[in-house]
Amino acid sequence: xxxxxxxxxxxxxxxxxxxxxxxxxxxxxxxxxxxxxxxxxxxxxxxxxxxxxxxxxxxxxxxxxxxxxxxxxxxxxxxxxxxxxxxxxxxxxxxxxxxxxxxxxxxxxxxxxxxxxxxxxxxxxxxxxxxxxxxxxxxxxxxxxxxxxxxxxxxxxxxxxxxxxxxxxxxxxxxxxxxxxxxxxx
Length: 186
Hints:
The protein has helices spanning 6-13, 26-38, 50-71, 77-84, 87-108, 115-140, 145-183. By secondary structure, it is mainly alpha-helical. The longest helix is centred in the C-terminal third of the chain and has 39 residues, at 145-183. The termini are far apart.
């Protein structure tokens, strides 16, 4: 028997394969059986899922809103002040560090005898700090920059002077207490 290769076989049998049409409804029955075994929907059974479309649209809208908020953020008050007067940031950094060191010394020196004095001083410092914030806002709003910058420096100097005076008073109170304790005899 002679062996034919596949190409010759198909050429010889061409036209003899598809002689009959499948019966009417064959494709629907086949798809239905396929559905039952694999859970695949037919074209007729597939419904438009609007929730998927809406969820994609909502996601895009959310991303747009977040993007607008990120790109349209206004600079902080500090950044706006630095834009108006760049030397303010260096001055503020120096004074803020000095004040913070003195406030820490003040808190460390707090004792039952000096508690009221320390608390009052901290309250005054908070008031001076809020005044400074008001000055910053006035500078941003377009006030006379030389006068406002001078007032800002005076505010820092006032805070430093207040802290020095209170620390000196606390030192005097401690010395007075130590002196009175030495003079008491048993």
